[in-house]
């Protein structure tokens, strides 16, 4: 995670950690040939997830985040037996039974989106102690209209693990890290496309400024080969005045050719990094 944070920044760390951790569980379970994955998600975790999915408008995850067991055909089922158990109850049990448990938070979690949902729920608990269970029951009672199309669980075309898209989130994030675009798999891809287009525009301006007269065309200055001083035309007065239009037109054509080449190169780069 230290290397990822160094590349991606302090935001969206939980996205990388959560996606890679879940796939690591799947990979480990398949290596051990187990038939079920059991996680320690408690009532606090599920209530936070419900709030996060509501705020993000993530209907597909909202419909399954409160289920004790989730499974797709051909995939390992996951179950959460501690769904209705409060976090503080688990800590008290581990403390009195003298069990080892982690009592410190991840150093990157203060910047995570989940932290705001957790703080909100803790404030609700002060007003209404049953708010955590109430939120879970609300999530269980939510119904989705029949005409709403939800993503179908499938397998990733690259790694062949569970995914709701042709290419799973883990592969997208990994590709972004390898290509130096860590935010490629986070949020909307059009933001990264816009950044690449801004780089394209900047390169166009730079290319247009670097191309000088008489450097790219033999037809410049009447077709003769003029003297060059610091990249500028140093032909005779007749060459400069009489055929000035030819010189300017040749330079414009050269600039257009150079810009078209730059546009094609960067367009290919955009398509490789954004189209998945």
Automatic annotation (TrEMBL):
Domain tRNA(Ile)-lysidine/2-thiocytidine synthase N-terminal span(s) in chain numbering: 20-108
GO terms under biological process: tRNA wobble position uridine thiolation
Key words of the record: Transferase
UniProt-recorded Gene Ontology molecular function terms: transferase activity; tRNA binding
One Gene Ontology cellular component annotation held by this UniProt entry: cytosolic tRNA wobble base thiouridylase complex
Pfam families for the chain: ATP_bind_3, zn-ribbon_14
InterPro entries: CTU1_C, Rossmann-like_a/b/a_fold, TilS/TtcA_N
UniProt domain Cytoplasmic tRNA 2-thiolation protein 1 C-terminal: residue ranges: 155-184
PANTHER family registered for this protein in UniProt: ATPASES OF THE PP SUPERFAMILY-RELATED, CYTOPLASMIC TRNA 2-THIOLATION PROTEIN 1
Protein's name according to its UniProt entry: Cytoplasmic tRNA 2-thiolation protein 1
Gene source species: Octopus vulgaris
């Amino acid at each position: 995670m230290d290397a990822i944070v160094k590349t991606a920044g302090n935001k969206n760390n939980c996205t990388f950690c959560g996606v890679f951790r879940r796939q690591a569980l799947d990979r480990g379970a398949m290596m051990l040939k187990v038939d079920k994955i059991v996680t320690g998600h408690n009532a606090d975790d599920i209530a936070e997830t419900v709030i996060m999915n509501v705020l993000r408008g993530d209907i597909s995850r909202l419909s399954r985040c409160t289920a004790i067991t989730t499974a797709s055909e051909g995939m390992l089922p996951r179950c959460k037996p501690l769904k209705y158990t409060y976090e503080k109850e688990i800590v008290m049990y581990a403390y009195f039974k003298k069990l080892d448990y982690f009592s410190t938070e991840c150093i990157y979690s203060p910047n995570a989106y989940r932290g705001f949902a957790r703080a909100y729920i803790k404030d609700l608990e002060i007003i209404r102690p049953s708010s955590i269970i109430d939120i879970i029951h609300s999530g269980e009672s939510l119904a989705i209209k029949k005409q709403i199309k939800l993503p179908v669980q499938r397998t990733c075309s690259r790694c062949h693990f569970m995914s709701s898209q042709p290419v799973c989130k883990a592969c997208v994030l990994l590709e972004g890290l390898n290509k130096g675009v860590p935010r490629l798999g986070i949020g909307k891809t059009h933001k990264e496309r816009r950044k690449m287009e801004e780089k394209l525009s900047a390169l166009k301006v730079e290319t247009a400024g670097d191309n000088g007269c008489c450097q790219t065309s033999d037809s410049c200055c009447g077709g003769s080969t003029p003297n060059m001083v610091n990249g500028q035309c140093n032909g005779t007065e007749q060459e400069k005045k009489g055929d000035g239009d030819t010189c300017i037109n040749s330079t414009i054509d050269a600039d257009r050719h150079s810009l078209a080449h730059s546009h094609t190169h960067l367009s290919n780069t955009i398509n490789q990094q954004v189209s998945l």
